[in-house]
Design goal:
It is a single chain. α1 crosses α7 and α7 (183-198) packs across α8. The chain has a five-stranded parallel beta sheet with strand order 2-3-1-4-5, with helices on both faces. The protein has 225 residues and is an alpha/beta fold. Helix content is 53%, strand content 10%. The chain has helices at 12-23, 50-58, 61-88, 105-109, 125-135, 143-170, 183-198, 201-211, and strands at 2-6, 26-29, 96-99, 117-122, 173-176. The model is unreliable at 211-225 (pLDDT under 50).
Length: 225
């Protein structure tokens, strides 16, 4: 099992999908269990709900970070059940890549689940800001819309600073994604960290099995990672 954490818009979902494909694992997002107010910017397919606009428009940065961390506190028991149940029912099942900001370092450090690796993604604030501004068409947005995006970013930056402090304090693994690496390159970096955490045996076996498949697709797995 591979756990991938990080702040919003750091690239967790993209990297996790590549890691899962390389290993032939299932890929899940913690947001699928319960979602906190999401992105506060419009897209052609999505309008910002009133409660999301109110959330980011009315709360201070301190209140925003308290709200999201409280949400992750409440969500963690469900995440822990998912992780432990998947590990316990590994026979005949594929492995799992689970990603999400709800994977907080101190909680993951307390997990007692064998053959589980955890890696966090981090980047400089400018990269996340550029991604959000591009996604929300910041220059064309109204003053109110820009304010919502800026408040979202302030919370995102605060989250990452707290996350990095926690990772450093626990001596856990973090991959810097600010170097312009491709998703495939970042996936390989995550796999390298995961392999180092577990001695690399299972990772090497899975990668060899995949390479030996005539189609290049993952072979069916008989145990979880």
């Amino acid at each position: 099992m591979v756990l991938i954490g990080g702040t919003s818009n750091v690239g967790k979902s993209t990297v996790a999908q590549v890691v899962a494909k390389k290993l032939g694992f299932e890929c899940l997002n913690t947001d699928g269990l319960a979602r906190h107010p999401g992105r506060p910017w419009r897209t052609p397919e999505w309008e910002v709900p009133a409660h999301v606009a109110e959330h980011y428009g009315s709360l201070t940065v301190d209140e925003l970070i308290t709200s999201v961390l409280g949400h992750y506190d409440r969500l963690w028991p469900r995440i822990e059940v998912l992780i432990t149940a998947h590990a316990a029912e590994s026979s005949g099942r594929e492995g799992l890549v689970l990603e999400g900001s709800a994977l907080w370092p101190s909680r993951v450090a307390r997990l007692q689940v064998p053959r589980t690796a955890a890696v966090w993604l981090a980047t400089d604030d400018a990269l996340v800001r550029a991604r959000v501004y591009a996604a929300g068409c910041y220059e064309a947005a109204t003053d109110e819309e820009q304010c919502l995006m800026d408040n979202f970013l302030a919370r995102t930056e605060r989250y990452q600073a707290l996350m990095i402090d926690a990772i450093n304090g626990l001596g856990m693994d973090c991959v810097d994604v600010s170097g312009g690496q491709s998703a495939a390159e970042l996936a390989d970096m995550v796999l390298a960290e995961a392999g180092a955490q577990t001695g690399g045996t299972v990772i090497r076996q899975l990668m060899t099995a995949r390479a030996g498949s005539p189609t290049g697709d993952p072979k069916p797995l008989t145990s979880s990672y």
